[in-house]
Design a protein that fits this description.
heterodimer, A: 270 residues, alpha/beta, Rossmann fold, 8 strands, 42% helix, 16% strand, B: 2 helices, 55% helix
Chain lengths: 270, 75
């Protein structure tokens, strides 16, 4: 049976969908069968980031409500034979979601895939609650910025009280991704460092992603940045995907990787 | 020189403010059912004796969390 991972954030616009696309593809590149599911009903975007928007015929609402078989709705990615995608409905709204149907859908995906990655909608409303309901793990994406961090703590609180695992007396494993780190700003004290964020949220780190201009270019083309061998963010996502798959990968200190002024100073003394 | 010092403190300021804000969020949200609980307690106590008000407070005694429930009776 596959592992269900919800990618959550609380606040919108922090890179949740980008993270889902990259981790999903990274897991698939690691040789594991992986499906990414867009749970953002009415505002789907994962199809765009994966370059699959023109291949969507059936979405998850067709599967849940209209008797379409899961296999008919799944789209295979050309970027990896191990990666499949299930689209959110763009015409319905989150009120179509229902616990029983979601459980059925997720259980059928768990039979065929080793990893089932769910891209949660922003916010902490019903659409979010349904995404985390049957998750085994959660990846929390934050930016080093006060509103993102505060909102993520609320989302974590809801995860810890409303997911099925918690109701069953178990725990949902939680992992933190700090996205859009600007090394120069961290070094000059204008941006929260990862150690501060970890101290505030107290959940284990699974990835530090530096800010990367290439992300926009990647989404323009529908090719996740993990495919770009020279991109710092792409390489960071690659390490995250390996960690998700259970590999032990050392953390790269992306906060001092920019070769900025402070780094040069440090080098003078070491 | 001074602008450097000022900049240095902005991440620290963020950390301090967040620590307090999140602590207060967590306290306020840890028992979202408190209003329902109050109403139910009133219903139960009413069966035996008149009651005017119920107060529920979350307390922390050396790491042991407790709910302190005050029931105000009718005169």
């Amino acid at each position: 049976m596959g592992i269900v991972i919800a990618v959550i954030s609380g606040k919108g616009g922090v890179g949740k969908t980008t993270t889902t696309a990259n981790i999903g593809l990274g897991i698939a590149q690691n040789g594991k069968k992986c499906v990414v599911v867009d749970f953002d009903i009415g505002q789907r975007n994962l199809d765009m980031l994966l370059g699959l928007e023109n291949r969507v015929v059936y979405d998850m609402v067709h599967v849940m409500d209209e008797g379409i078989h899961t296999k008919q709705a799944l789209i295979k990615s050309k970027m990896s034979p191990n990666l499949a995608f299930l689209a959110a409905s763009q015409t319905k709204d989150k009120s179509v979601l229902d616990s029983y149907k979601i459980k059925k859908l997720i259980n059928s995906l768990k039979k065929d895939f080793e990893y089932v990655i769910l891209d949660a909608p922003a916010g902490i409303e019903s659409g979010y609650e349904h995404t985390i309901e049957f998750a085994d793990r959660a990846i929390i994406v934050v930016n080093p910025e006060v509103s993102s961090i505060r909102d993520s703590d609320r989302a974590i609180g809801i995860l810890d009280s409303k997911s099925q695992r918690v109701k069953d007396g178990e725990e949902v494993e939680k992992y933190l991704i700090i996205n859009r780190i600007n090394p120069t700003m961290v070094q000059s004290g204008e941006m929260l460092g990862s150690s501060d964020i970890l101290e505030i949220l107290s959940i284990p780190l699974i990835g530090k992603i530096p800010e990367d201009k290439g992300i926009i270019d990647a989404s323009n083309q529908g090719k996740p940045i993990i495919l770009n061998e020279t991109s710092a963010a792409g390489q960071a996502y690659k390490r995250v995907a390996a960690r998700v798959c259970g590999e032990k990968v050392d953390f790269v200190d992306v906060e001092t990787q920019s070769g900025g002024f402070m780094k040069k100073i440090k080098e003078m003394f070491t | 020189m001074f602008s450097f010092l000022k900049k240095k403190s902005s991440a620290k300021t963020a950390k301090d403010r967040l620590t307090i804000a999140i602590m207060s969020d967590r306290t306020n949200n840890s028992f979202p059912f408190i209003e329902e609980l109050k109403a139910e307690i009133i219903e139960v106590v009413k069966k035996y004796i008149g009651v005017t008000k119920v107060n529920i407070q979350k307390e922390d005694h050396d790491g042991v969390e407790a709910l302190s429930i005050d029931v105000q009776l009718e005169k």
